[in-house]
Amino acid sequence: MADIKIYNVDALGKPVGPYSHVARAKSAETVYVAGMLAPGDSFDKQCAAVYAQIGEALKSAGAGWANVVQFTTYLVHSQDIAAFYRWREQHYPRMFPDGKYPPNTLLIVDRLVQEQFLIEVQTVAAL
């Protein structure tokens, strides 16, 4: 198992959502999960399905949420930022019960590969 330390830096202030400033990992392997997309008729449904796919990808590599060291999130609409924060606040405590949430870079993009997609999340994990 990787030695992962996730923490915040006081000099940087409190994060504005459920994420941390820094993840430091000593590991034998690194797992890179391509950006996951999922159809759905609402942002919340797409978000849930995207994270379910990430969970399956991690599982296939012998990993789980505790192995995640970074997320990169792409949203199509800035109006979905609040919904994304709410989704994480509702679900991250179950996924990361120790309260150490991986760093996350959040980007707003013009569109994703198909117009139906509202969110894409890329993941890096350490084994």
Structural features, described:
The longest helix has 18 residues, at 43-60. The chain has a four-stranded mixed beta sheet, with helices on one face. Strands 1-2 form a two-stranded antiparallel sheet. The chain has helices at 43-60, 81-95; strands at residues 3-7, 22-26, 30-36, 68-75, 104-108, 119-126. It is an alpha+beta fold and 127 residues long. It contains two helices and six strands.
Radius of gyration: 14 Å
> Which structural class should the secondary elements be placed in?
alpha+beta
The major pleated sheet works out as: 4 strands, mixed
Number of helices: 2
Level of helix content?
25-40%
Order of helices and strands: EEEHEHEE
Could you tell me how far the N terminus lies from the C terminus, measured between alpha carbons in angstroms? Answer: 5 Å
Which regions contain 5 or more consecutive residues with pLDDT less than 50?
none
| Mean pLDDT over all positions | 96
Provide the spatial order of strands within the biggest beta sheet: 3-6-4-5
β-strand amount? 25-35%
Number of strands: 6
Shape: globular
Structure in a nutshell:
By secondary structure, the protein is of the alpha+beta class. Helix content is 26%, strand content 30%. It is built from two helices and six strands.
